[in-house]
Write a structure and sequence with these properties.
The protein has 430 residues and is an alpha+beta fold. It contains 12 helices and 18 strands. The strands form 5 sheets. An 8-stranded mixed β-sheet has the order 1-11-12-13-16-10-9-4. A 3-stranded antiparallel β-sheet has the order 5-7-6. Strands 8-14-15 form a 3-stranded mixed β-sheet, with no helix packed on it.
Length: 430
């Protein structure tokens, strides 16, 4: 969410930043609404003051025994009371209209973010690892002989419909091992605090992190009003909602492994084969709450945490910075990490790490108290996958595939697999 005072101070800069995201200029409309809102508030306050003065004069007239003046002033107070109520309602309506529009406007990109219209304009930062060469045509994960017994889309469709999967046996264990490996690495080596949070949240929590009101169709809501989280970003970031924390408690670094739920609205026909795009999936999510001066460096640190998981697993990847036209709604800068999938012969996103600045904090009213004194300031928030567990499973299976349908598993996973390092063509771990 944006600060209307900042827009008042420099409307041209605000419109220029929106233009970089491909959005229309909005400062004139916002400032017109803001002027009307402030005028209504001033009028209501003026009328309230007049009502208060008249109320005092009513008592004085009664004390003097001036019945005519008493009746006149009493009628005036009654009229003013109705007028004030109408003015307050008007001011409230204008304030809500302005807030609603501000909630619909995306975050402004950092000046350093490359300009562009879509993913074709994203800029590669670096690559790690060399994609393996196969003396056979590599298959996609769901086609591998050792995988088909433990990855059941037909039963999932019977249970729930399209874009669900039932994992069993060795595949379910590898999937679980990946999540545990990620959590242990982030907590023991990267200094994140493991956190377990609900997957059902109140509407204001989704509003705080920017999933609402603009993107409600992308998520699921229960009949009781709760929302199913699209990632643990919602719960982890909102831990500080409504709080003013001490400066010396920053940064706060959280990690959680949760089920995630997305309706995938508007994605019909894309990536429907296999596990790549599901309505229900698992992620290990990282969230950092930082001092404003430290947030840009924290983005690089978090990106390194996610990259480190892929490096330990020996999975080739590339890291790109998203252009202004491809960034998410709440981001000021985003790094996407794309893992190599030999079955598709391309890199596919496995992590997206974003710096949101004060955008979410303003929506959540999350602040910190400066140690040197002064007014509380908004914290900065960051979030990123560390990693998407299902997509990591896909990458492990496809990169380790052998000609006979078996899969060589990363050595880094063996402690979480009881020392086993191979998935046989028959679907067993050995």
């Amino acid at each position: 969410m944006h600060d209307i005072r900042t827009i008042r101070e420099n409307p041209a800069a605000f419109d220029a930043a929106l233009s970089r995201r491909g959005a229309e200029p909005l400062s004139s409309r916002l400032l017109e609404m803001d002027e009307a809102r402030r005028a209504a508030i001033h009028a209501a306050e003026t009328a309230q003051a007049e009502q208060n003065r008249a109320s005092k004069e009513v008592g004085a007239a009664k004390g003097r025994g001036d019945d005519a003046e008493f009746e006149r002033l009493r009628a005036l107070v009654s009229d003013k009371k109705a007028e004030v109520a109408a003015m307050i309602a008007r001011a409230k309506d204008l304030d809500e209209a302005l807030t609603a529009l501000l909630l619909e406007i995306p975050n402004l990109p950092l000046d350093e973010v490359p300009e562009g219209r879509d993913e074709a304009d994203n800029v590669e930062i670096r690559r790690w690892g060399t994609p393996a060469s196969f003396d056979f045509t590599p298959k996609e994960h769901y086609q591998l002989e050792g995988v088909t017994r433990g990855m059941d889309f037909e039963t999932a469709a019977k249970l729930s419909g399209a874009r669900f999967v039932v994992l069993s046996g060795a595949i379910a264990r590898i999937h679980r091992a990946l999540a545990q490996f990620m959590l242990d690495t982030h907590t023991e080596e990267n200094g994140l605090t493991e956190t377990w949070t609900p997957v059902l949240v109140r509407e204001e929590m989704m509003l705080g992190t920017g999933q609402l009101p603009k993107f409600g169709e992308d998520s699921y809501q229960t009949r009781d009003g709760w929302w199913l989280v699209p990632t643990a970003e919602v719960t982890l970031t909102n831990i500080v909602s409504g709080l003013t924390v001490d400066e010396d408690s920053l940064p706060r670094r959280y990690v959680a492994h949760t089920q995630c739920f997305r309706s995938e609205a508007g994605s019909a026909g894309r990536d429907t084969a296999g596990m790549l795009r599901q309505h229900q999936f698992e992620k290990v999510e990282m969230v950092s709450i930082t001092h404003p001066d430290a947030s840009r460096a924290e983005l690089d640190r978090m990106t390194g945490c996610a990259e480190g998981i892929l490096q330990k697993l020996g999975l080739p990847y590339r890291t790109v910075v998203l252009c202004t036209g491809d960034m998410g709604f709440g981001a000021r800068r985003t790094h996407d990490i794309e893992v190599w999938l030999p079955g598709q012969n391309c890199y596919r996103e496995i992590s997206s790490v974003s710096l949101c600045g004060a955008f979410q904090a303003r929506r959540m009213n999350a602040r910190f108290k400066p140690g040197a004194g002064g007014k509380p300031e908004y914290v900065h928030s960051l979030n990123g996958s560390g990693l998407a567990v299902g997509r990591c499973l896909i990458a492990v299976l496809e990169n380790g595939q052998q000609a006979d349908g078996s899969v060589l598993l990363p050595e880094a996973l063996s402690p979480w697999l009881g020392g086993k390092t191979r998935l046989t063509a028959e679907g067993a771990l050995i």
